[in-house]
Every structure is written in C-alpha cells, then in structure tokens.
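VWA domain-containing protein, pasting as requested.
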Amino acid sequence: MLENRDYTLIIDQSASMATTDQRNGRSRWSALQESTLALAIRCEEFDLDGITIYLFSKGFKRYDYVKSNQIKQIFADNLPGDTTNLAGVLQDAINNYFKRKADGKTKPEGEVILVVTDGTPGDRQAVFEVIINATHRLEKAQELRISLIQVGADTKATKFLHALDDELQSVGAKFDICDTITLDELEDMSLTDVLVKAVTD
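Structure tokens follow.
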C-alpha cells in the first residue's frame, strides 16, 4: 500500500513558523526539521529515488529527488519569512504529479502529498478550489492523497484544516482525498501510521 508511490513534502516557511511554541522552547521551524527528517527517512524506504520537497511562503522552491541526508542543509539554507501562499505551491505539486502521470513517470499506486503547515494561509478559498479541481482529474480516490499536518495550536487553522478533511465532497469534490493530523498527534503516531492514514483515511 505504501510502496509503488511517490512522496512529496510541502513545508510551510512563512514568518509564523519562527514562533517558539514547541516543546523545550523550540521554534516551529526547528521542530519541523526533525519531523521532516523522520518523514524523509520513512518515505525513502518506499520511494527509492528520493522525495520531492517544497518550501513555501509567498513563493516556493522545489527540490527534486531529495534524500534524507540533504534535509539539514535545505533547512540551513532557508529561514522562515513572509506570508502563506498554500494554494500556489499545492497547485504546482498537483500539476507536477499530472505531468509525470501523462509522461508515464509516476508510480503505479500514485502519490502522497504531505503538507506541514501552521494552517493559516491567506488564500483559504483558493486552497479548496485547487484540491476540488484536482479531484476531477483523478481516476480513483487513492491515486492522489493529501495529508495536512498542523504545527502549532491555532484554533482557526484547525477548523480550516478539518474542513478540508471533512467537507470537500459537500462543496463539489469528486473524491475526499485529504486528511488532517496535528504535530502533537504525529508525535504519538509512528510515521508509518501517518503515511497509512494519508493513504487510507
């Protein structure tokens, strides 16, 4: 179920990720580096050619075929700043998947996109539209899965992310392809559990 898939990790690099509200006085950014490394190591077991990593704030950067030993340098080269444009980076990741699919370069079981964010994009309606439009390009629900992992405890953000999880089909999506967990839940779950949840929820 987890093999024969590609994995893309989208990481929120907006200014709010510098907030120091994590355990032991760490910033969201430093907590995220640890989680990203752990996720990359786990995904690497299934996606042998490396994973795709995006960092996004107002704009975004894409790193292809990333191995776990490159994560530390990616974080060192990028610091939090600017606003949260989730719709733009999500659209690029989805377009990238469909382009590779058209070129016959995707894995048989499709792709999992993991979005690690504090969940406060300025473009919430646009995020819904990007995901809804993507579902209408899919042949089956399991082909593309989006798992949103919330860093921090912003209640408005939690509400928004749970709406993506629970309400997509009621507003026009062909399939429900999203699930949501918090970083706290992530610490209580094995990373395999997180990936299984992304694929099966």
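Note for the archive: The mean pLDDT is 87.
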